[in-house]
Every structure is written in C-alpha cells, then in structure tokens.
Amino acid sequence: MTESLQAVHTFTGLPWWALIPLTTVTLRTVWTLPLAVLQRKRIQKQSELRPLVSAMSPVLKLNLAKKVQAAKRKAQKSLETSSSNGSNSDSTETFAALQSPLASMKYEEVLVLSTKETRKRQKALFKKNNVQLWKNMILPAFQVPLWVSMSLTMRDLSGWTSWDSLPNKPLDEALYSEGLFWFTDLTSFDQLHVFPLLVGITALCNVEWTFKTLELSRLTMKKRLRPTLTDAISNLSRMTVVFMMAISLNAPSALTLYWLSSQMYSLVQNVILDLTLPISFTPRKRFNYKESKSANARPVINTHS
C-alpha cells in the first residue's frame, strides 16, 4: 500500500496534507461505508425482532415453572399414595416421580433453562430473517485491517521507527515540506499538540455518540449501580482514546492527520446513519425529547372520557 500511495501522489500531484484525508475518505467510502449501511439495516431488523424475543422469556419461564410445579405435585401425590398402600408397584412409580428432573428443579435452574431456550429461539428467529448476530462482526473485520494497514503505511512513509528524538527518514522527502499552516513538516510530531487534542476530542465524541445510541435502543430501563457489558466496553473505549492521544503526542503529523481524518469520517458517518436509519428511536429524541412527540398525540393513561 505504501508504493500505491506514493504512485497516487506522483500521478495526481496533490500535496500530502490534502492527499492523506482524501485517501481516507475514498477508502472508507468505497471499502467500509456500504458495509456500514448494510449493518445498520441488519441492526434495524434485529431491533424489530427483539421485542418478540423479550416477550418469549416470561412465557417460557412461566411454562417451565408450571411443569416443575406439576411434577412436584405428582411426586408428592405418589409419595402419599405409596406410604398409604405400601405396594411394590406404587413404590416404583413413586421412585420414578421423585427422580424426575422437573420434580427436583430449583428456581435458579428454571431461570437458566428458560434463558437458554430464549437464546435458542432468538438464534433461530434471527437466522430465519437472515440477520444473525455473527454478521455484526463483518464491518469490524474489514474496518480494523484497513485502519491498521493505513497506520503502518503512514508510519513507513514518514520514517517513524523509534520513540527517541532522532530525526525521521521518510520514504518520500516531499513530506518535509508538503504540510500546511503550523504542520509544514509531516515527518515530525505536532509541536503545538493540536492534532493529538483534536484526535482525542473527535474519538471521544465518536465513542460517546455510539454508546448513547446503544442506550437509546435499550428495551428496558437501566438499573443504577449495576454495570453492564456495554458499560465495560464503553469504559475500555474511553481508555483507548487516552492511549491514542498519548501515542499522538510523539507520532509524526502524517500519521495523526490520518487518525484525525478517520475519526472525523466515523463520527459524521455515525451521525448521518442515526438520523437517516435510526435503530429504534426517534432521532430528534437525542436532541429534544419534546419535539419527538406528535402534535396530535393524546395521553392513553389516566384519561377521562
């Protein structure tokens, strides 16, 4: 990819400060944007099916609890009958009733089995509608290698091979002078630390926007003082932003310019997708809840005719 990018630079004659963002936008639009749109439509369909899956859980739990209670009543009745009659046949039936898995099942086991059955039916339902959960990993599987390969390309072009203060030896000497404004030398780090700050702010906005979208798409109220897997991933993402900012302080401007371009593209893409292809909420609810209500809406609770 390094040679290809150098060939594009030679052919177009564009300065590096313009070619790097333009290459980022082009690759993301051609490589990952179609996958992002397909994934958003897939998640929309999954969100439409999740209420049906949520409705299955209490029904399955109730049915299993009824079977457990019936098995326990049968075992108790068989035990009483056997103790009163004392016959061998009744003892055999009583032993079989007592050994039934349902008769000895506890409440925690009912929850576990009903949860497994709900997941099994959700998997079958998603497969029937061609929106399996594993397909949500297709976009990261394409996006992460692109980000890594472009980062390595920018590092190789700028000659950044160490953390010390030795001057870089770029593959293309035009990087020394084809910067802009305060970052004329794209092989050195940003001495004003503007790029690291912008990278951190943009990445943090991207993280907060994404996880706010996930919160708005929740079907149930989030319980206080009970962190979820989403909370853990969001905190890990915030720590990653800090780590990226720390690296950006010593990274060449060419690399931080690519990171900034990629983060800005992701943020704009996520905002546009949330406004045009919302998952399961009104887009304006994110900004103004009152405006998300219809002017002709009427209350349905505590109404008086």
From TrEMBL:
<keyword id="KW-0812">Transmembrane</keyword>
<comment type="similarity">
    <text>Belongs to the OXA1/ALB3/YidC family.</text>
</comment>
<feature type="transmembrane region" description="Helical">
    <location>
        <begin position="232"/>
        <end position="251"/>
    </location>
</feature>
<dbReference type="Pfam" id="PF02096">
    <property type="entry name" value="60KD_IMP"/>
</dbReference>
<keyword id="KW-0472">Membrane</keyword>
<protein>
    <submittedName>
        <fullName>COX18 cytochrome c oxidase assembly protein</fullName>
    </submittedName>
</protein>
<dbReference type="InterPro" id="IPR028055">
    <property type="entry name" value="YidC/Oxa/ALB_C"/>
</dbReference>
<feature type="transmembrane region" description="Helical">
    <location>
        <begin position="192"/>
        <end position="211"/>
    </location>
</feature>
<dbReference type="InterPro" id="IPR001708">
    <property type="entry name" value="YidC/ALB3/OXA1/COX18"/>
</dbReference>
<dbReference type="GO" id="GO:0032977">
    <property type="term" value="F:membrane insertase activity"/>
</dbReference>
<dbReference type="GO" id="GO:0033617">
    <property type="term" value="P:mitochondrial respiratory chain complex IV assembly"/>
</dbReference>
<dbReference type="GO" id="GO:0032979">
    <property type="term" value="P:protein insertion into mitochondrial inner membrane from matrix"/>
</dbReference>
<dbReference type="GO" id="GO:0005743">
    <property type="term" value="C:mitochondrial inner membrane"/>
</dbReference>
<feature type="transmembrane region" description="Helical">
    <location>
        <begin position="16"/>
        <end position="38"/>
    </location>
</feature>
<keyword id="KW-1133">Transmembrane helix</keyword>
<feature type="domain" description="Membrane insertase YidC/Oxa/ALB C-terminal">
    <location>
        <begin position="115"/>
        <end position="273"/>
    </location>
</feature>
